[in-house]
Amino acid sequence: MNYPPNAPPPGGYGGPPGGPPPGGYGAPPGGGGYGAPPAGYGAPPPPGMPGMGGPMGGAMAPHAPYGIDPVSGMPFSDKSKMVAGLLQIFVGTFGVGRFYTGHTGIAIAQIAVSWLTCGIGAIWPLIDGVMMLMGKVPDAQGRPLRD
User: Are the C-beta atoms of residues 106 and 96 closer than 8 Å to each other?
Assistant: First the structure.
């Protein structure tokens, strides 16, 4: 069977070029379009709304003089994670970093463990200091340490 060049095979694949596609495809049901947007999308909240404060978002919250953590929404501590971490790394066997953050019980336990194990327990304050530098340790009130 020879077919002329650029001709569809017998039985056809559709109508004439430029015409509607076969199979009854037409306009979408319901008049087309995407419809109304889902609820909850509207204008942004006005400045000064709770949770919108901080360095970029407007007025400073009086209960958070050091700002608000964008991840947890809690106010930052007055203690610095850099100071706490370095104190804990360099003089952690005496619990200084934990005394600084207000965890007196943990600080006394670090002193006792370091003393009772003849210095082998000093690994605990070292790891604790690294965790403080990473920002994983809150202060005694549960607030994240500030940068």
Answer: no
For the chain, give the mean pLDDT.
79
Predicted TM-score (pTM) of this structure: 0.58
Q: Which pLDDT does position 54 carry in this prediction?
A: 45
Place of tokens 């015409």: 19
Given a contact cutoff of 8 angstroms between Cβ atoms, the answer to whether 145 and 80 are in contact is: yes
Torsions phi, psi for 117 (to 5 deg): -100, 15
**What letter represents residue 88's amino acid?**
Q
Task: Say whether pLDDT at 70 is over 60.
Answer: yes
For residues 142 and 74, the answer to whether their CB atoms sit within 8 Å is: yes
CA pair distance 83, 45, nearest whole angstrom: 37
